Amino acid sequence: MAEAGWNLVYDGFEPSQERLREALCTLGNGYFATRGAAEGADADGIHYPGTYLAGGYNRLATEIAGRTVENEDLVNLPNWLPLAFRPEGGDWLDLPHMELLDFRQELDLRQGLLERRLLLRDAEGRETSLVSRRIVHMGLPHLAAIKVVLRPENWSGRLEVRSALDARVTNAGVERYRQLGSRHLTTLERSAFGDDGIFLVAETNQSRLRIAEAAVTRVFDGADLVSVTRHAEDEEGMAGQHFVFAVTECRAVAVEKVVALYTARDRAVSEPREAAVQAVGKAGRFDELLASHVQAWRSLWERCDVALENHAPTQTALRLDIFHLLQTVSPNTVDLDVGVPARGLHGEAYRGHVFWDELFILPFLNFHLPRVSRALLLYRYRRLPAARRLAGEAGYRGAMYPWQSGSSGREESQTLHLNPRSGRWTADNTHLQRHVSAAIGYNVWRYWQTTGDRDFLSGYGAEMLIEIARFWASIASYDDEADRYDIRGVMGPDEFHDGYPWRDEPGLDNNAYTNVMAAWLLCRAGDVLELVGAERRRELDGLLGLGADEIALWDRISRRMRAVFLDGGIIAQFEGYDRLQELDWEGYRQRYGDIQRLDRILEAEGDSVNRYRASKQADVLMLFYLFSHEELRALFERLGYPFEPDSIAKCIDYYVKRTSNGSTLSRVVHSWVLARGDRARSWSLLAEALDSDLADIQGGTTAEGVHLGAMAGSVDLVLRGQTALEFRDDALWISPCLPKELQGMCMKLLYRGHWLHLQIGCEELTVSAPDGWAGPGHIGVRNRLHAFKAGDVLKFSCRRVDEGYRPEPNTAARERVMAEGE
Ligand code: BGC
């Protein structure tokens, strides 16, 4: 398999690209992450250093447009990066002040290592080369380290070093939020310790989260520690020190800064300052830390890599996506109480909130790091009481999860939204996306299907599914004339539509995605009661006050939920969709070029996107993304609606044409649904989805944080999409069909406790179960179910799938042959 595709390399310094590169070169370990800003950089027009702790939120209130707006933010923590150099009395060796003779920045994905190589010339003609290397330790999640190897190329003299921990930072990474409160930190203590250490303790001013950082900065000449005299840099909100030592022309010295970050929430510590000070004291040198860090990454890549044959650019993009996913959520996340922020721990967009994006993220984790999936689901379980409260306040039963979730599980969606095009603040109704609760239920179910984790399902998942089902049953209203159930006043995933042009109050009726998801969920709530066993069932009945009538009602609603159709059997996005106007897509494209954010364009024109058949992102098509054709057919048949295979292609074509892809999630869905019908289009959408952040296709948003849903969703598109992996009849089925762009790929999948190694070539598929395979296992390949035993290597012939390929017919009469390979 290909060895290329592990490095992201930038030659040359581009100030206008710096914030984008900082986001893409973020280093993190699932506990905290730090943007790839240069060590000497402050937040200015070019740079934005940022450090974020998983779950590190704080709330502030601000007066905006005559209202008090409360916002909860993922707090930018004290900057631990500052490490600056200058020839004594000269200018600091940073980019804006120096002549840059050479520059190269490289992110090594395999090792989780960020390296920057610079050759600088100052005003006096002194040339100095610097190679800085940085890690945020994957195995020791409280530690990070920088090593700068510095060489005076044509001078000798004295070099001054400044090292600091800086709590004067604010949350200022997103231009649109500038009017909102941004000072979250109060410094409590700062001081030097030992011969070479500094520490700083800060606290968030509302959530009262105490954070301690400690750093030791040392100079080495080869293996020898260089002794230096240090002076404290005393500034409010900053712990710093500087020192001077002699350097000699062409002789390299290494300056190493090792940092520890702890908070009052950490386990197995007495107090964060003490923990941080002790940790840096014992951490050892940079190279030792690097070795154990690389080992931790090696184990992660062993499980999680998806290797493509001879496809270097796609490979790099794919690994970059896996890399950032694992930096946001990793084995270090397992003991934390956190969800997945939509924009990673990479920036401040969406304030670090957790949306429905887990829907795109969990499939990959389920197959590779199920413990992490479980932890993310437990974040939701702990917020079940808050979701019950939300439902109750809105007049419903059960659990209604918030559209945006942060620390406590209350609704964190903003109520006002700034359109940067018009400068106007408009009402933000996105909290009406009640479908988030269905996504959480869906995630519980797929996690259970992939892992067979009965303990989770019985102890937590069942309660979540039941309470979510209850919510759907109570929000649905019965139309006795039509004998149908309606869900009114909600929003679907498409955020362009938050209401009808002809109605004052926000919300739409019978959004197809929401209704079908609700019907599906009501069925699963019924199933789970069967699965948990009689003992647990009795407990749940008692604890939740479940009765036969309620369960019968779920069954009934799951058969009579309304779906609305357009001509030709196309599922209508919502009731009344047919009354909307067609948009002049070509005209808008010509006038504006990039029309991804059509909502902002139209609002700035004094119009409203609500008037048009124009979607920001996949909505109806989400159904084809989340469910196999067989599952959908069963769902529609249960609802008493026809499900003609012909109408699927028409439906896909209809909505793909009317979607601006203003959310990066959209391309993932479109690529998926086109995978079997239009291979070329599907591949180009996959390539765009993979490039979402790398190429910053939204023109500026990646700098504010990566789009984790699109990243994980793109990887999943390769993984599940190209293998046509699905669950059917309580088994895992694959039916690989590589597009012509791919020569081969290999990956591992953890399925119900068994690791499967898949090697997919143009002509052959090899499925092997490593030695040690325990119980019996089965996997479906194409239309046959195959039994596995320890050490088996099964080979199947593959066909190259070209244009015009149509799926094999999904028939109930599908052959079910048990075989020991072929
Ligand atoms: C999308 C949502 C998504 C959110 C966070 C929005 O632009 O429309 O579907 O959940 O971004 O990623």
Describe the protein's architecture and organization:
With 822 residues, the protein is an alpha+beta fold. Among the domains are: 7-303, Beta-galactosidase, Chain A, domain 5; 731-820, Maltose phosphorylase, domain 3 (Sandwich). It contains 20 helices and 33 strands. The strands form eight sheets. Strands 1, 8, 9, 10, 11, 13, 14, 15, 16 and 19 form a ten-stranded antiparallel β-sheet that branches. A hairpin with a 2-residue loop joins strand 15 (210-221) and strand 16 (224-226). It is globular. It starts with 6 loop residues before the first strand and ends with a strand. Residues 802-822 have low confidence and may be disordered. The protein binds beta-D-glucopyranose. Residues 342, 350, 355-357, 493, 495, 616-617, 663, 665, 709 line the site of beta-D-glucopyranose (BGC).
Characteristics:
822 residues; alpha+beta; five-stranded antiparallel sheet; disordered C terminus; Beta-galactosidase, Chain A, domain 5; 31% helix; Maltose phosphorylase, domain 3; hydrolase activity, hydrolyzing O-glycosyl compounds; ten-stranded antiparallel sheet; binds beta-D-glucopyranose; Glyco_hydro_65_N
